Amino acid sequence: MLHQENNNIIKSGTLPNKNDKDHWGLVVPGGPFSDFPGAVVLVESNGAVSSSNEQAELLCKFINRGGSDEYREALKSALNGKAAQVNPLLIRAEKKETSKVLAAFDLALLPWDGGRAALLLGRNISLERNLRAALIESRQRYRDLLEASCDFAWETDIDGVITFITPDGGLGYSASELAGSKITQLFVDLSSAVTNPFSCKVPCSEEEVWVKDSYRDERCLVITSMPLWSDEEIWHGNRGFCRDITRLRKEEMLRADEIHRERIYNRILEIARSEMVPVRMLASTASCLIPALPVDAVMISHFDGEIWQAVAEEGEALQLDAIARVQTALEMGETVYQETSTDGVLVAISTKFRDQANGAICLWRKGENANWSSGEAELLQRVQSQIGISLQQFGHHRELQTLSSTDPLTGLLNRRHFEHLLSGFLEDNVGDERTHLLLYLDLDNFKYVNDAYGHQEGDKVLKDFAEVLKHKTRRHDWLARLGGDEFAIFLPVVREEEAASKAQDLLEALIPAFSRDDDHEWSLSASVGGYLFRAREGQELSDLFLHSDEAMYRVKRSGKNGVYVVKEKLDGVG
User: Fold this and answer.
1) One MF term in GO for this entry (predicted)?
2) Which of 196, 228, 343, 491 sits most deeply, having the most CB atoms within 10 A of its CB?
């Protein structure tokens, strides 16, 4: 049983003899350990506490409870005459090793009274231990927070050279690889950074910089830094941390691309709904695709099963041989064609209407490493069906135009469309000093064919006549059947000295078509009149036909089967 006799002495068990100063006077005022700043306990050989001071209360409870294995080993050593230590001695609320620690002591156990007792001197280190633990915990918490908030921390000197970096390094580099180097050497474009966070004399918060990692992939870092100043207010570098937000930024860019592509697709749908002329709709679509994908050239072509026709072109002109390869591949049944060169990538996809191929979208992107993203491919697939519909509309529209502008028998322009084109040409070329030739052709003795052989044979003659004209004229010349057996040809840009010979060449080319050996009365020929003119202000289309018609009738009156060309003011030139 413990009891307190004064403020400094706690006795337990059998009290020592009053004459035994070694036992009794340990902790009394003036005794050898009365001023010891810690716990003092005298333990008998049987393990019981014989005396102790006030600071030893928890220690005495621990001893009376039996102590711990470590304590008992140390006590045994002290009772055997050898000093021992337990550092630290943890006193818990219960005997369980997992129970709460009430106090901690640095404990020294000294042999006493010839091995009949042991003197325990203990320093309570609970506060120190708690502070140390709190500091360790604080440091760990700071490290955890730092690791959670950034990927690596760093310090640089005034030259921007890294003098410290967290042990794990960063950007795929080890700490030793980054230490001593300038991280700005990894910047994708240093000029794009508003502030260089590694060498700035003002605080920098959340500055985004794109860098290349050890695999040469681009990464986006958000950097926060503070300048470092000496006591003499001399700047000697920066300290900060970096957080890798590449994934976040790429996700944002993907979302932005998706929104952009959706807007482009909606824009194309809007064009399809509002633009009634298919060729204009396709031209607008091509214009939208240039910045949307982006690409350097777009060509949309219509295919009617035999002939390819470029309907809309935007951007740079595509090479003819590349277009030919694309068309050949698509005609053979390929739905996607791609070829890559050092200059760029050419991609073409076929368009369909009701599972029938009717054209292609051809795209060109410059650049040695030009790639196509899945999002761009998705946009093309969505646009593909809409363009297929528009190309089908274009084909129908072209058929209607052909029917309304051509002669159904010969396939040449009809009179109305021919006059429309010629009138537009005059307006567009007013003031041009080059000369142009309008020919008026009339078949001689055509009535005999219809009377002798019927209109079916007469139609055949007209078609043969038209075919000869097609083969003997230039690609940009305009041919028309004005009605019956009357034809007209407009030849733009013909020199004066060539006008009569061109007309004569046409007439001679017609001779085989007019020949028939089995009928001596068959005497088909043609009278050709021409008018050579320049586009003048206020010039009337009717005047052109008047002059060329008059020239043709001069041939008729002079015996038919000939050519007569006049120039302005009815001056004959041949």
Assistant:
1) diguanylate cyclase activity
2) 491
